[in-house]
């Protein structure tokens, strides 16, 4: 299962919604979203949009400093990942690339309020829709919780792993001992240049991006 929603290119998530999370056996607490984040993915499996792993596998330091774990499908946790823009999404093409890890939680709630936009775009398990947002003092609430499990068929090379299995899920069969180097704004800009995305990059007016393959 995965769910995504994004803000307008010139808006950030905090202008549209208040995000709250609940740990296992805990209480609701507000999740602070960096102002640069414009889209959020919530998922409980290490495969998204053609097999990419937005959460990745946190290295030893991140496990200790932020109490993060690998994305197991049966640990009762939902991984919450943020992205700044389309260029940020390109990090998934790089070895050990991942989005900005925001939280791991048993439940997550989005409380949309009247604000900077009248709608947002959402997608659940590949099905997109345009979600109207409040035009008055009402609140639109979207809540996701890790509830039950269903039996699934999987082959021996399946990326999804159980918390009961000794092997840590990763794209190359070993722990991704990363440093979250692309999660800091300055280092993200440097990483962006590695993909050839200069700050002044712009497609020519005569180029229709819809026709690019």
UniProtKB/TrEMBL annotation:
GO molecular-function terms, A-Z: ATP binding; ATP-dependent diacylglycerol kinase activity
Q: Which UniProt keywords apply?
A: ATP-binding, Kinase, Nucleotide-binding, Transferase
SUPFAM superfamilies assigned to the protein according to its UniProt record, in alphabetical order: NAD kinase/diacylglycerol kinase-like (SSF111331)
Acidic residues: bias regions? 177-188
User: Which Gene Ontology cellular component terms are annotated?
Assistant: membrane
Gene Ontology biological process terms in this record: phospholipase C-activating G protein-coupled receptor signaling pathway
Annotated Pfam families: DAGK_acc
User: What InterPro entries is this protein classified in?
Assistant: DGK, Diacylglycerol_kin_accessory, NAD/diacylglycerol_kinase_sf
Which parts of this chain are annotated as the region Disordered? 156-195
| Protein name as it appears in the record | Diacylglycerol kinase accessory domain-containing protein
What species does this protein belong to? Triticum turgidum subsp. durum
The major lineage groups are:
Eukaryota, Viridiplantae, Streptophyta, Embryophyta, Tracheophyta
């Amino acid at each position: 299962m995965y769910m995504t929603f994004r803000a307008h290119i010139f808006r950030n998530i905090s202008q549209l919604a208040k995000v709250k999370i609940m740990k296992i056996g805990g209480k609701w607490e507000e999740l602070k979203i960096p102002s640069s984040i414009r889209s959020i993915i919530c998922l409980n499996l290490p495969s998204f949009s053609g097999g990419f792993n937005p959460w990745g596998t946190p290295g030893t330091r991140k496990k200790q400093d932020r109490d993060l774990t690998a994305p197991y499908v049966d640990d009762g946790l939902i991984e919450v990942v943020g992205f700044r823009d389309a260029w940020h999404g390109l990090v998934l093409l790089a070895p050990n690339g991942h989005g900005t890890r925001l939280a791991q939680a048993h439940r997550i709630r989005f409380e949309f309020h009247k604000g900077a936009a009248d709608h947002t775009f959402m997608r659940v398990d590949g099905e997109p829709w345009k979600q109207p947002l409040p035009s008055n003092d009402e609140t639109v609430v979207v809540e996701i919780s890790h509830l039950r499990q269903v039996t699934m068929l999987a082959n021996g090379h399946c990326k999804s792993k159980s918390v009961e299995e000794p092997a840590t899920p990763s794209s190359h069969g070993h722990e991704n001992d990363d440093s979250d180097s692309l999660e800091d704004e300055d280092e993200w800009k440097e990483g962006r240049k590695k993909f050839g995305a200069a700050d002044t990059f712009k497609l020519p007016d005569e180029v229709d991006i819809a026709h690019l393959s």
